[in-house]
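Email to the structure team, subject: phenylalanine--tRNA ligase model.

Hi all, the expression group asked for a predicted structure before they design truncation constructs. Nothing fancy, just the tokens so they can compare against earlier work. One-line instruction: predict phenylalanine--tRNA ligase, return tokens.
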Amino acid sequence: MVKLIRSNNVYITLLHRCKYSTVPKSISTIHINGKDFKSDDYSNITPKILTYLGRNLHLQKGNPLSMVRQRIVNYFYKSFTHRGNPIFSIYDNLSPIVTVKQNFDDLLIPLHHPSRAKQDCYYINKDLLFRAHMTAHQSELLRAGLNNFLMIGDVYRRDEIDSTHFPVFHQVDAVRSQRKEELFNSNPDLEIFEPSFDTKKPKVLNDITDSSKQSCHTLEATKLMETQLKSHLIGLIQALFGKDIKYRWVDAYFPFTHPSWELEIFYENKWMEVLGCGIVRNEILAAAGPNNSIAYAFGLGLERLAMALYNIPDIRLMWSKDSGFLNQFANKDVDAKITYKPISLYPQCVNDISFWLPNDLTIDTFMSNDFYDLVRDIGGDIIEQVKLKDKFVHPKTKKHSVCYSIVYRHLERTLTQFEVNKIHKEIEKAVTDSYNVVIR
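Reply from the structure team: attached below.
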């Protein structure tokens, strides 16, 4: 039995005797993977998002994400060894359910930072969420005594809907830390920390107003780590795209690293950002245990790399179970040169939806990401794109109206306008019931 109910401005599907289900807010619990979690005003997990849990595309042999993942692992295994053994450890099956502390607090992300907003994250409740980045596991692995590791898995962010955005994607994050004797093995007179830095109070926030380094670090330590970091990541990109790939570094800001950079490559006649990186804030290292080392970290998205490497035009294809897609990657060497060949170019169906907002909502306060989640819950993966087409304020009544275009396209067959219209009517009813709007 499948029943749609309204809960917390989101349609919740109750799938009886199904592996994934959620429970109405009135029962105050959300059931995920056999466990019950308390719900509250933060809860915004949708039924569709629950269906992606446990798919682990990065571990599915023959999936392009798995192939890119293995190429990255191979690079680090080959490039970093000690006495013939790889020094990087791999963690690719960590639970996607993390605490707010793990996802934000441990990484020095400010309380009012926009990345914490319900608009951007999938919250189970005010204390738990689906990780928004693999860096959420960084502190726990540092506390476990690890100093060189890769974290690989699925991450969850509420976002727009188009060919390059999906609410679930896959990241590789890494940390490499070194003590003084490792970093300056050929120059033991140099130090990681400035003489003025109080090593007895390593958790105190240090100044980052100097764009070249953190106040606690010496310039020599920072520059040497920067050189290593950039050299290692250029090597990785060249291993993936070839020695002739054009690249450039761009200064960036992340709450958990300083200084920070983004690496861009020249792809299809334009610059494309492929990863972010930087020197880990010393407060994070000290809070996790190692207060006598310096570290770099980076994070990259597997989907973006796979789409560029194999010319995959639509991010939804990563989730396809169609043999026509998967067979192009099955039983292939991970370093094979593969160019995706479309199975078929099925036509789009485009329907617009316009509605008047209730008096308590305006164009500025209506959250498009809530609407996108609702559309995806009902339309599923045949939703190719949702884009805001028009905004309007009635000159007399001052009522606000919005219009969205919804692009429908199935990846494996032709959709009929009849079935699209049926789904579109369900979306109209859902948005009417959820937000008390009036369809125009």
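The longest helix spans residues 219-241. Residues 1-27 have pLDDT under 50 and may be disordered. Ping us if the truncation boundaries need rechecking.
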